[in-house]
Amino acid sequence: MWRRIVSTHLKSISAVRSCAAPSCRHAVVESTHFSLSTRASSIPAHSSIFSRQIGSSADTAVKKRVEDVMPIATGHEKEELEAELEGRKLDDIDFPEGPFGTKEAPAVVKSYYDMRIVGCPGGEGEDEHDVVWFWLEKGKHFECPVCTQYFKLEVVGPGGPPDGHGDDHH
Amino acid sequence: MIESQRHSYHLVDPSPWPISGSLGALATTVGGVMYMHPFQGGARLLSLGLIFILYTMFVWWRDVLRESTLEGHHTKVVQLGPRYGSILFIVSEVMFFFAFFWASSHSSLAPAVEIGGIWPPKGIEVLDPWEIPFLNTPILPSSGAAVTWAHHAILAGKEKRAVYALVATVLLALVFTGFQGMEYYQAPFTISDSIYGSTFFLATGFHGFHVIIGTLFLIICGIRQYLGHLTKEHHVGFEAAAWYWHFVDVVWLFLFVSIYWWGGI
Question: Which residues cross the membrane (chain B) (predicted)?
């Protein structure tokens, strides 16, 4: 199952993922993405404590920590809870929103690896078309053959091929 | 997506429990048939199969607890699986009991000439519904109220009180089962006493079986609550036990009205 988001801008882009996921409405916040990408490169269990403390000292308001909400949370449940308390969603990068992509201002799709599958549903209202699926690769722009919407990939993770071939860690 | 795995789902590690459960089911069914026909070793195979199934349930659900509470794999979207699964399972159980109520109604609404054209059949001395069954009727719903009390205690973070409430729930359940057992022992008719005996003991018997399963489930919830597994945000296992318990309660009310009360008039 996939979800599409249509932004309130005049013409819109949507990236569609062939994976079921919960709600889609949210805005992408730049700062949290930087913390996301730096955290991804270090060991999650340890760095999460530090980044949370750094985060809370920078906050002026009283911030709830995971320990206050669910002390025994661990693993992925804890990561999900942390993200919720910080006001971001972990699958943020699956639902990009923005104006219609042009050559001068391409539609930016974030990706953890060097390439990902993207679907273009066209513009707003009458300009919609059947979803055109394609691989969007790092460094290569893509133009939709139906509506000429322009896409660009932004790598926010460790990069590399998405199937993990050539990865010496696993 | 989760940092270390890029999605919120739980891809379960390979496990031997599905195949061991299947083998247990095979042994149970084959052993059961052998037992009911003149084959040697049927009883042994049947018992072995049942023990194997029970063992599989124990280790499988122990793994679920380990993966969820101790390893944190059960994110919000993963929790939907057991949640909806429990509801659908209870719906299937409703269908199961529906069949027994239908069977009872089929025989009682138009009593056959072979049993005297009356219901209860001629010669059957029915249990007085206003004695033990009527006593049991407030006991089980009180147990249901206790489990709701436990739920509210969990939601309020009152961990000790939740344990006490679950203990109360289980005690009431055991009293119910005890009374039913006594009644069964002292009943003037058996399962082989005409269609009345068959429908009575099948319907109430399966209900009793479900009460015992529900009681076991609640005991395990009580142990988990005592160990601190259940939090106010996340206690899907407890909710499933509570739903199952309310279902058992409702079935008893239907049983009392249709089989004990109406069936004895």
Answer: 17-36, 43-61, 81-103, 162-180, 200-223, 243-263
